[in-house]
Each structure stands twice: as C-alpha cells, then as structure tokens.
Amino acid sequence: MLKLYYSPGACAMASHFALEEAGVEYELVKIDLRKGEQRTPEYLAINPAGVTPALATDQGVLTENLVIMTHVARASPDAGLTPEEPGFDFDRMQSFSGFLGASLHPAIGAVLFGKPPLEGEARAAALEKALGKYDVVEQHLLRGPWAMGDQYTVADGYLSVFTRWLRQADLLDKDRYPKLNAHLNLVQARPAVVRALHMEGLEPV
Ligand SMILES: N[C@@H](CCC(=O)N[C@@H](CS)C(=O)NCC(=O)O)C(=O)O
C-alpha cells in the first residue's frame, strides 16, 4: 500500500490532497518537523534530503510533490486529476506546478519559516520578492476558476498550500490577489480537501 510521509500543514499537503482526491488506499506517517524527525536516521533512509513529503510505493520511494502528485493521478485515471497525457495541457500543468515548487515555495518559505527568521529590511525585501511570485500566478498563470481552466487538477491542491500559508500570515490581500483568494476558497470547499485537512488536524482557513 502507498505510504505518505507528511508534516501537518506543510507542503506535503499537496500530495495528501492528491491521494484523497484520487480515492486510492494509502497510509499516513507523520513526521514532526519541529521535533526534527525529518533528520532521524530512519527517515533519512527513506528520504536522504530530510524533507517531507515522501511516498513509499511497491517500487520504491518517490519524492517531490510534483512527481508524487502526478504518480498518484496516474494510479487513478478515472479521477481525472490531470489533463490528458501525453499532451500540451498536461505539460502546461507541469510548468505551473514546477513554478510553484522551484520558485514560489522557496521564496515564501524563506520569509515564513527562515531559520534564523529574517528581520527588518532583509525580511521586507524577501517578502516583496515572494509576493511578486504570487503576482505572477494571480496575473498570468491562474486561468480560473481552476489553475488550468475548467478542470480541477493536482496543481490546484498544490497552489492552495501556498495561498493557505499566505492567508494564515494575513498576507493574502483581497485587492492584490482576488483570483487567488477565490481559488483558495474553492479548493477548501472540496470534500476530499476537507477530509485531508481533518486528517492533519487542520481546518479550512
Ligand atoms: N520541493 C520539495 C520541497 C520539500 C520541502 O522543502 N519540505 C519542507 C516542508 S514544506 C520540509 O520538509 N522541510 C524540513 C526541513 O527543511 O528541515 C517538494 O515539493 O517536495
């Protein structure tokens, strides 16, 4: 059976949403980042990078949300969690998720979870850089109502992780990010997403 190593509220939620949307059987294993459980020898044997998520499968371990989400979507094609593949729309979804994972996530992560925490001018500069990434999604990438247009895909769950973080920090400004606000509300109204949040001990924000 699939086994997802996750940390409540962290980016692994994107993979968790995908599993719940797909309706496949899986087991959850909690890794407490605050206690440093991502650096135990047991977990490093699963993911030597010492981060969550990791998905243990019959064939081995997969890491990176983008890859895990796609793997899960393929395991459950009837759930329709990606555009048809191979195909350009599928590739466009991967471009979207790639931007989130490689550009937006590190930018906002440095502001919200930097160790040591950023302060003063350094924080202000890092925050504006991160918000600029959200501007790109708001103004150019998010087609509406879902990221790719009419079809909900795994990229939507992924985006919602980062808009949740921004809303929790009181930074998802309604005037600057009207589309991102509406999108987050839509994602958090999905039964599969609410189920996954509850499993992590969380509520929609
Ligand atoms: N690009 C990776 C990022 C994984 C990542 O950075 N996870 C964070 C939580 S959001 C983590 O486990 N951090 C623990 C640490 O850095 O010690 C992915 O999308 O899977």
UniProtKB/TrEMBL annotation:
Residues 1-80 form the GST N-terminal domain. Coiled coil: none annotated. Residues 82-205 form the GST C-terminal domain. Gene3D superfamilies: 1.20.1050.10, Glutaredoxin (3.40.30.10). Signal peptide: none annotated. This is Glutathione S-transferase family protein.
